[in-house]
């Protein structure tokens, strides 16, 4: 235990590291990667582990309206979800995607990399160029090479901007498809039960 206490970070150094990380994340328009934080601390001769500096910043903002969260593999300040409803009328919302674009984006997210034909097969309808253009314009998808089949169609996948837009640390943060099925199952069972109950009352 004594050895552990000897290795504790100097409070002054930790406070300095906290301020530097806070300034870096606040100033950056994109999520800040841990490597960039480590580079900054090294350049400033601050011998504080990145994880410890990050935890210090997150603790500092524990009771604030903003928090520092992991998004697309980097750190970014974001408004806490509980304050979102209060801002809906004063903060301009980004353009909303059409239903077709959202369906296409979901298919790409869960099946990437996938071709246009594969997307159309899953959706059951043709994929309009306007839908692809909208997703490309918002930098939510990008080409990920070509499939080694006749015609070598383009493979599509999501981007870091997609993770940022949906507040995901990485693709493992996507809800499991199994959860969607489980969510729907009780509703179907309840509908069946209601139908049976109504038939019994009618009889």
Structure report:
This protein is mainly alpha-helical and about 200 residues long. It contains 10 helices and 4 strands. It has a two-stranded antiparallel sheet with strand order 1-2. It has a two-stranded antiparallel ribbon with strand order 3-4. It is elongated and about 60 Å long. The termini are far apart.
Helix count equals 10
N- and C-termini, Cα separation: 76 Å
Summing up helix and strand content along with how strands pair, one would put the structural category as mainly alpha
Q: Kindly report the average pLDDT value.
A: 80
Kindly provide the radius of gyration, computed on alpha-carbon positions and rounded to a whole number of angstroms.
Answer: 24 Å
Helix content: 40-55%
Which descriptor suits the 3D outline? elongated
Strand content: 5-15%
Please write the string of helix (H) and strand (E) elements. HHHHEEHHHHEEHH
Descriptive labels:
single chain; 203 residues; mainly alpha; two-stranded antiparallel ribbon; 4 strands; elongated
